[in-house]
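ESCALATION

Customer reports they have been waiting on this structure for their group meeting. Please prioritize. Original submission:
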Amino acid sequence: MFPLQFGWLTEPGIYWGRIDPWEGDSDTVTVDCQLIAPGNDMDKDTPKTAFITQFHALMLFKDRVKGVCLLNEQSVFDDSYDGTYGGLVGLAHDQVKNIYWAFTEYAVYKYQVVNETRHVWRVYLEQGQFNLAMRHCGDQQAAMDLILTKQAEQLFSEGKWVESAMHYAKTKCSFEEVTLKFMDLEEKNALKNYLKKKLETLKSSEKTQITLIVIWLVEIYQNKLGHLRESGDNTVECQAEFRNLEEEFLALLRQQRVEECIRNNKEVVYSLLGSHGDQRSLVYLAQVLRDTDRVVQYNLRNKQYQAVLSILTTEANPELFYSYCPVLLQSLPKQTVDTLVSMSKLLSPSRLLPALLVSQSADPDVASHSVRYLEHAVSVLFCKDQPVHNLLVSLYTHHNKDKLLTYLTSSSQLHCDTKYALKLCVEAGLVREAVYLYTVLGQHEQAVDLALTLDTD
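Update from on-call: job pushed to the front of the queue and completed.
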């Protein structure tokens, strides 16, 4: 093992440095060597003896003991001696207890080294050696904050704004002052990075500031993305920059703290994204928040009906089916009814009636598929709700007349409103069906009269 440093007492002062065989010139093992002068004009005599500690030099003169910091050559203490017990003779070091003994002809004086490094961080800070300053400040939070602030200020003055922002975010500097400093810059990357880093340091209880930062970040990203979209630059570099920035933005939205904040302020964020025309991010955010209504509405506006059906099937939320089935049935009648049949155990036929009622005046294709679902509800689900049966009868009379009689005679008990069914049959000129319904109602005379009008040919 090698000693870490050396000191050599000479007439001009103490020549000292570090010992490192693996650093510096191959011809020497000493590095960072310098000469520490004894002091000012008062120190015209040469020290009798001297010792060096990790950061200080302790020198014995004929009339005093003096301590000098090795890092900046500043005097840290000067202990004068009046010669009461004779002149100072020498200085010794107890390496076990780390005690220094100054002795005269008739007395001994003790110098104890206590917490030698407590102010070393300040020296390194004054010299701009921030990493060393942080290493030696220990658990002093105020000292660490001061070091980071000074380093951030220096980086800012050097034009290293992003690095400066990252350091400012770790300090307790005024949020308003720091943001104003970076807002004056044309390039907003530094401000963006400051806000992102600051967001990580905030406590969960600081909801107001979290909300402010999240909304601000969304605005910054949207401005930059919008600028790239509108630039008209289709070069590979520009496209790659846009994709990277967009992925960075989407990653921000996925952060738990950001997601929770947006969930509580989603209308504001939706409005902000919409004002910038970023529908892609809006839909992505809605998916992250599981805001299915927003995703469905977006797809409906873009006539992506199959995508809506897929979303409703995946979500398996009956209320969504009841809300959007009227539009889907008009646009994709077959696929919509196929989906309703496949999920029939989850859905109530009665709740679907508002959507199916539209098919009464719709084109035959929509009506035929509506009939198909109602037949499934009646024959497979054994639905006995009168409104469901009434609608099936109505659709039969308008679009599938040949099926009506079979429906009426297939069961010993009709679940539709018989008088309503009779009215529809009479209006549609369905004599056989009307005769049957008169019979069911016990109006045999009317049934016979009507039956006599039938053309037996």
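Sent to customer with the following note: The chain has a mean pLDDT of 85.
Escalation resolved.
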